[in-house]
Fold this protein.
Amino acid sequence: MSSATSNATLGAPSLDIVFERSMFYGTIFMTLCYGVCVYMFCHSLSLYFNFNAMLRKQYRLYIIIGTASTALISVAVFSNIVLVQFMWIDHRDFEGGPMGYLLATSSAWWQVFGTAADMTANFIGDGLLIYRCYIIWHGSWLIVIFPIVIYLASMAMALVTLVQSAKPGDFFTGMAVNFGVPWAVLSVALNVYVTVAIIVRLMAARRRLKGILSKDALSIYTGISAVLVESCLPFSVLGIVLAVTYGNALSVASAFLFIWGVFLALAPQFIIFRVMNGKSWTTDLVAQATAGRSNTNTSFGFHTGSMPISNTNLNSSMTASGIEVEMHTPTAINNKGSMLFRVPKAEFRI
């Protein structure tokens, strides 16, 4: 009787069973996260096409990033689904069982293609995160130069991992692990650094903006949801768990790898979703937070709901119900870019 059979008989599942269970639950949560990712992308896309031409030009980069990351993660997700289908259904009688099939086909072109798509999505997501950190820190290169170096090192290790995964062997226990673990650790280190940098900046901005924004507006830009999304905190925590389990060759690593793979696109989609809904940090808001003045006369563009307003001279002051804004010679335009009204002076509250 084999050791696996003996363990199963004694009630202790073999490592192969634990690994397969992890893949099973990882596949379930992977598809759930993928569904959320697709929804947010479609919703952001619908908002984008309802913007006027000026706003579409302003947010075009975010939509390109969202489209690319969603397409790439779709390739990775479906390659994983095909893998588990072949393992457990189409080739269940393969010599060595499902694990034997996994080992024999780990270097198949469609598996390598899925891994490459995941890695490319990782590059895009990390690049967006560094860019957001750059914006929130008001264009400070000193803050982002370190994560840029980590970013380049992570890309190099990812490419080596991809080459190793194309060779016969197991992605979880073969030579690919020797390079896959450093890639995961570097990616996680980058995310942790940027997460801490953004959280520190948002907490500092919260104190400065208390005299500028209303309580509701302050919650939008510096509340818990803003901190979680802008800093990608859940993604960083998940990455740490993956680095520990994958680095120690634990059987449960497959589940976290599947979920983390989707979060490579899901985390940027959360940021893009906030951007499209007008709730993200912009260079103008950062400038206000840096100045820390409650009465400012500045020129900036923003949009709220279905009425974008752009390039408007504003004089804002704090009131009990929110920000009171005086608008001098404004131009309000609808989503198609048509003028709605023009008055010499107007006053409204947001």
In short: The CA atoms of residues 251 and 268 lie 28 Å apart. Residues 15-50 form the longest helix (36 residues).
